[in-house]
Structure formats: C-alpha cells, structure tokens
Amino acid sequence: MYCIAKQVVLPPLTEEERKALVEKAALLSVYAILDAVPDPRKRQGLRYELAFLLTCLLAALLCNCNSTEAVGQWCREHVEVLRQVFGARLFLTPTGSLYRKLLPRLDVQALEEVLGRWIQATLHAVADEPIALDGKTVRGARTDEQAAPHLLSFCTHESQETLFQVRVSEKTNEIPVAKAVLPTLPVAGRVVTCDALHTHADLMQITHDHQGKSVFTVKGNQPTLYDNLATYFADPQAVCQQAETWDRRRGRVEHRVMRVSTEMNGYLAPEWPLVAQVAQVRHTVTCKGQTSTEVVYLITDLSPTQAAPLRLLSGSRPLGHRESLPLCP
Questions:
Q1: Cα(70)–Cα(94) distance, rounded to whole angstroms?
Q2: Per the domain annotation, does 4 fall within a domain?
Q3: Is residue 280 part of a domain?
Q4: Boundary of a domain, candidates 64, 90, 112
Q5: CA 218/CA 298 separation, integer angstroms
Q6: Which residues of the chain have pLDDT under 70?
Q7: Count of other CB atoms within 10 angstroms of residue 87
Q8: Are the CB atoms for 71 and 65 separated by under 8 Å?
C-alpha cells in the first residue's frame, strides 16, 4: 500500500500541543488549526493527513459541493490548485468514499470546538458587539430515517459572525446546550440577547457571572412573568420612560414603541434577582393598507444608565436589523 511522504504525516499531537494550537488560533490558518482535531484513523498506510482532508472538505463545501462524491470530484478538478497550496505530494485527490468512511468517525464536538476557537480568535466584530442566540432546524435535511438537525448558533449582531454553532441532540433541547456553551464564549463586556425560549433567571446569572449583560424576550413560556408585566404596563398609572422609532421602506411602515420601567424590580427580585429594567415593545406594521400589531415584553439586567429606552429599543430589533447595543460603563 502506498503511504504519504513522511514529512507530511505528523505524529499524533499531545494534549498540550493541541491546547497550544487553540490558544494561538489567531495566528494560524484554517489548515494549521485543523491539525488540533483528533485523527480517529490508525497511523499505518495513511495517504492524507486529517488537516488536509478537512481543508479540502471546507473548500469544496464553500464551492457548493453538497455530497461526498461532489467533494471528491472537486478535488480531482482542482489538483493544480491543491498542489500550489499544499506543495508537491504523492496524493492530492481524496475520494468521496474516503470521506464517507472518515466523517462518521470524527469527534464532532472536538471539531466544533477547534473551529469555534479559531473563529473567536479571528473575529472582525468589535469587542463589545452583542451576541444573539439563534436556534434553527436545517431545511431540506430531513430523511426517512432521521429528523432534520437542529442547530443552536451564537452570532454577533452587526457583523453576523458565528462564534459557535452546535447541534442540539434529539434527546435534549436548546436550553441546557446554551447554558453549557455560553461560558466558553467571549461574553465579558457584551450584551447577550435571545428569544423567549431562553428567558430564564439562571441563564441571566451565567451571563452575569462572566461579566456580560442580558436582554431577554418574555412570552407565554414564562406565564407568571408575562402576566405580571402585561398587568403592569396595562395600568394607565404605570411609571415608565418611553421611546419610539419609525421605519418607512417601499410602502412598508414600521412603528415601534418601547415603554421601560424600574418599578417592577423589587416585585420580581425573588425570582429575578438581577433584574434592572422591564419593558413593553409595541410593534405595528402597515403594508398595502393592512396593519398588524405585536406586543412583547423584555427583561434585562442593564440599568437605565447602561441602556436608556431608545438604546434598548434599537438593541431589541430582530437579528440582522439591529444597531449595536454595547455594554456601557
């Protein structure tokens, strides 16, 4: 059996070497950082090192290859490119069958951690850009035997960079996954936003313990909290500060009104010890003569000094339409 040149197949990395690679991620290429992924294969008879295979896989996926056979074809069609990038070597064209055998054996968690660390180390986002938790089920990925995978992503608001993305097992849900992953991310000095599913006091506490702040949406999954906020803001005598924004584009008019109060802090403190403000957002959209209105509530540990109503209103817009909501001193 043919073997790859000796100088290309590296000995297995020690745990200390893997840790060093991750810590120096900002100085490394994707190819170099992928060397920190454990190789599940035996060392005898290897034609390709794992970092080479994974780099080719990433490149092919970026070129819209959607199967292992397509990845193999991409490698065959780009031999000269691979030779220029990786230098002369005996083998440059991994096959689709090789990937079919390799991929199920990879340590997915280790791969995600390595890529996540590299992404975090090479961020373009500013240091205080907020982080949004966003869970989605992958479209078109369901098969007769298996449900479509559900992914939980941690993304920056403005630059839309994915700090970390993890598959949520069918045996659990997003909530424990978020609690486990959030402490590993650069939360300090940032605001964490999420949808109502993650509105829990312990997640706010985790964010606070890592020097971050939270803005959580309150809906029906927290019925007591939701009813308390709805009752308070329905009172004409409620003490609030208010801000509003108008957005007019192509015949679509969007009006958002936020009312913010600190008067509920003491009442909510037993269940939400970190609460600093609560808010009501009334979102009215008029398009083609039809008007729809949605009312949601927010809870945050941002103080009025750190986030005045207008700033809080800007930071609570849907992902992709936000202004940055930095954590003010």
A1: 11
A2: no
A3: yes
A4: 112
A5: 5
A6: 1-15, 17-28, 116, 119-120, 122-125, 140-144, 315-329
A7: 11
A8: yes
